[in-house]
Write a structure and sequence with these properties.
Number of strands: 10
Radius of gyration: 16 Å
Number of helices: 3
Mean pLDDT: 88
Largest sheet: 10 strands, mixed
Strand content: over 45%
Length: 197
């Protein structure tokens, strides 16, 4: 599962435009209409490399992906956001596969694909009037440089674009991982399968 972090929205957020594969899995959960309308105030894409993926048994793969973040202003200081991911993972030999209760130790490193993302509940905050990064288009690439202890250098779109954020929970989250004929889904409403290498 993508590491969701601690209780603040900034820590929760630890792409190119969402691809067909991402849309196929996440479907209506990450579509614009799930935020209930409003003004699109942020629509950015960026690449992430070196992100450690956290299964039920600890870190099991390193991810690289494109992420699209869209934020709608739904009231004076109220917002809703979606983040769509599309990318690849490479398993870490010697780590335990990600499924809940798995005891399978991953052998050689294998590369697969994943897609999915998350949607926030309505949250409140103050939009930064002069953010360091653009609110439209590609904002570049970020190397999280994670190690197996989750010592990482995360990029937080929340800290970049907002101050005084509260109401920081996720309404939906989920990712689907594929390698050959193997599939692991880890979502708020579904956990099934495994990636065993």
């Amino acid at each position: 599962m993508r590491r969701l972090g601690t209780s603040t929205l900034a820590a929760v957020v630890i792409a190119m435009l969402a691809s067909t594969a991402a849309a196929a899995y996440a479907g209506p959960q990450l579509s614009a209409n799930t935020c209930g309308g409003g003004k699109l105030v942020i629509n950015v894409t960026h690449k992430v490399v070196g992100d450690l993926d956290d299964g039920f048994n600890g870190g099991w793969a390193f991810d690289s992906y494109n992420r699209q973040v869209q934020v709608w202003q739904t009231g004076p200081n109220t917002f809703c956001a979606t983040a769509n991911y599309e990318g690849q993972f490479v398993t870490v030999p010697g780590q335990t596969s990600p499924a809940d209760g798995s005891t399978n130790v991953l052998g050689s490193a294998v590369k697969g694909t994943f897609s999915g993302g998350y949607r926030t509940n309505q949250f409140t905050g103050t939009l930064n009037p002069a953010p360091a990064l653009s609110t439209r288009g590609s904002i570049g690439s970020f190397d999280y440089a994670c190690d197996l202890e989750f010592d990482c250098t995360f990029f937080s779109w929340v800290d970049t674009y907002f101050t005084s954020v509260s109401g920081n929970s996720l309404a939906w989250w989920g990712w689907e991982y594929k390698y050959k004929n193997q599939r692991w889904v880890n979502a708020i409403d579904d956990t099934s399968g495994d990636i065993t290498g």
